[in-house]
Hints:
This protein is an alpha/beta fold. The chain is built from seven helices and four strands; from the N terminus they run αβααβαβαβαα. It has one domain: Rossmann fold, CATH 3.40.50.970. It has a four-stranded parallel sheet, with helices on both faces.
Amino acid sequence: MAATYGRLTGRSGVCMSTLGPGATNLVTAAAYAQLAAMPLVMITGQKPVTHSKQGKFQILDVVEMMLPITKFTHQIVSGSNIPTRIREAFRITQEERPGAAHLELPEDIAAEDTEVGPIPASRARRPIAEEKACARLWT
């Protein structure tokens, strides 16, 4: 649904998943969005960065897994960085050739209290070909 939303509107579709198997299910969606130039932002959960009571249960390196099939992938390591990274993911998915971006949000970071104010809106810029370059295409 999120990839199709991106394809139909040109605006980034968004989907979220749990850690482990939920995140691996997004691999197909990421590849599909990337290959078909559909803007898609994927947010996956992860065990706490600092202390996990369940050890390594269901912990996969999702960032590394998404690296070859997305335009951008990043693990958020501070609650104060969440707005900046989300904005960056949306910008990257819509710039130049649209595609997929992935953000991993560990439980402890998602629960952090932060004091981040509103971020001004901005639009993604797509490169515009020079008139001379376009004219050469027809000669």
